[in-house]
Amino acid sequence: MKNSIYGIIILALSLTSCSSQKKLVAEAPFVLGTATVQEWLGGKEESGSGQTIQIEVTQMNGEGVVMQNLYFRGRMTPVHMELKEGVMYAMCDLKTSSTENKPDMVMHADSTKEVGNQPPKLSKKDKNAFPFELKADEAVLSFMEDEKVKYYKVTGIKEKKALTYPGKSKD
Predict the structure, then answer these.
(1) Which parts of 16-147 are beta strand (E)?
(2) pLDDT tens digit string along 73-118?
(3) Measured between alpha carbons, how far is residue 77 from residues 24, 93, 109, 165, 167 in Å?
(4) Which of 56, 74, 99, 115 is least crowded, fewest Cβ atoms below 10 Å from its Cβ?
(5) Which is it for strands 158-164 and 30-41: parallel, antiparallel or unpaired?
(6) How far apart are CA 143 and CA 79, in angstroms?
């Protein structure tokens, strides 16, 4: 008898527990147009590199809908809305590399003067860290509607030609 009660409790808990996989909605309260991603590379070493993701929002069908984050190629970034030439876009900027967060290092012929240097931190890929399995041309847009966070898959993201910003010449 006790085993059946424990079994029922375990079954009830497993059915009501929270899922780590985020659920996608089939329909969103907005209509999306063309989505593009463009790599960029700064002209100076310290300016870094990154990607700009631009998603055209052709129609908003609900009041109180707020775009939040974009999940793209293993990373998450905040979304901001921008009006360009009369068209509304959901914009995201992913900075992929920069030297601004790197600590100072001492490089010296005498290795004892390099003692304070910190070793680089290696990132560990955690399978549970990114909540979606996406192809290279897919992203998930999170938005707030009716005080609930919802997720909508964006497909067919087109790659634009990379932008390389000119650097200042050293004289």
Answers:
(1) 30-41, 49-60, 66-72, 75-78, 80-84, 87-97, 139-145
(2) 888 999 999 999 999 999 999 887 655 455 666 777 787 777 777 7
(3) 18, 7, 42, 23, 27
(4) 115
(5) parallel
(6) 9
